Amino acid sequence: MEVDPAPLTLIPEAITRTAKRDPDHLAFRMIGEEISYGELDRRSNSLANMLLDRGVSHGDRVGLYAHKSISLFVALHGIMKAGAAYVPINPDAPAAYVRHILEECEITHLVVGQTTRKPALALAEDVGLELLVGIETADDAVMVVPYDEVWRYSSAAPDVSVSGDDLAYIILTSGSTGRQKGIMHTHRSGLAYGEVAAATYGFHSGDRIANHPPLNFDLSLLELFAGIVVGATIVIIPEAHARLPASLVQMLEDEQVTVLNAVPFALAQMLHRGALEERDLSALRWILFGGEVFPTKDLRALMQRLPDTRFANVYGPAEVNGVTYYIVPEPPDDTHGPIPIGVLYEGMRALVVDEADNEVAAGAAGELLIHSPTHMIGYWRQPELSARSTYHRVDAAGMTERWHRTGDMVELGEDGLFRLRGRKDRMIKTRGHRVELDEIETVLTGHDGVEQAVVYAVPDGEGSQQVEAVVTLRGALDGSTESVEPTDLKRYAALFLPRYAVPELIRIVTSLPRTSTGKADRVALLDQAVHRSEEVTALQRHHSAVKQVDPVRKPWNGF
Amino acid sequence: MERILKDYIEEQLRELDEEVEVEAHDNLVLIGFDSVAYVRLLAFIKRRFGVQIPDTDVTVEQFGTVSSIATYLQTRGAAAGMKSGQGP
ipTM score here? Predict the structure, then answer.
């Protein structure tokens, strides 16, 4: 029987703990490269010492702007060891978007990779970054530290005092005003999630847990924190493998992965194009999915294909990390409706309330409020927004508790399971990513030629949604406008938004349908769009029936 | 053949970024080629070169770069001139 280890207060202490007990045990693997817990502990110390030497101080934000590599994960822990907070930035995002994050979070030190080297160097001069970590350059105007220099710093634990209530990481998410929301977590709230997830799914040091989502996607925190808390090995799935299902499945087999956590879309791709029948995935004991609804027919087929794997739906907005989970008892049939989000993790509490914050009757729908040790401390430098998302409640002992307003509408069934029933606002999920439709409208109306833009999400019939827009142009009636094409608008939107938030379809019209109060009629526009997509689907069915071509294949709707 | 693939892939990526340039050894996923783009690419290859590609062949090794796709298609016996009349 192992001695119960001392409780952790900082996220990277989990590494040090395993490094002392079992230094040669592997912490990360990524196609042929690997790093043990002992080496991870030493190298993340070196990185922390380098940052402290180069001007980073307690509470500073350090950006992670790179595609996946083992060094990137070392840096993530090194930043936290230095008493700073890591800020993962989508490496595929346009420069204006990255710049906005750097300015908003006042980031002066940025970890970059070979694929982000060029935009990072351009941004460095523009934004006034003090240091780029992980690359070299001949340009004297920019300070850089390549990794081989980083590893020469002392590998002893850095001499800083960090507490569990200090900021550990900031996850950025779409904001309705066009300004990104920075979700601030402490070591305490991050660890609380890692520990409860590890206990719930029974993770242990022998597990080989895949990291499939990118670091800027909060879904990745599950394996990142729960994995290191138990001293498991994290198998990093490179971006290319994550998008090519045949390679993903091959990697799961080769690496004997025991836990896979991914968005339903990626799992459906694996089912349809991953050649699962040719691979032995008997090591895989858990598939965890979250971010959006898993279409029942795909989930059923995947469960039937992998009968020894357990499946769980995980739910939780980034503001509270994880909240509920539902272990799917058996392959669901079509009568079940969408999979429940299940029950609360241990130590969390929920309220389902109406508009006036009164609890709804049993079984009725209402907004989900959460009280949990995994709760964020607020949105970065947006106190009003933080206040709006917080509900204060006085408990029986007269103490005021902080609760999070999720904005998600739920129902608690007689079976004790929570089910999602939509949103209170205009946030949607596309391919698992949170997108505020208002943010996209703000971006489109920023184009000189655009008068008004209405953005809405159309269900794609695969459990996800596609972003579409209708715009009117300035001077369209008197012909004074220069010609603007939908392609121009898509390229314009792509300058400011990550790829998944750029509308798939933009229609230019002369006038928008209006409601009786004169506002753009979003409901009518959405109805038209849904109707159009149904017509297209019907037409495709008709064609395939008449021409006897290949059976209709599932489209890859992007990821 | 590499030229035809490069032109096609650049055309796809230019839908969102007018100035993008694709090099033969660029990791396509890291420069913005996503799953939808791969499906379109497979349809294009079938149309242009008359090659039907099984799912198991669409791997990082064979479909990761313009150069690796061209090599793969050569081993599959596709020739650049094939079906040129039906190209877009």
Answer: 0.87
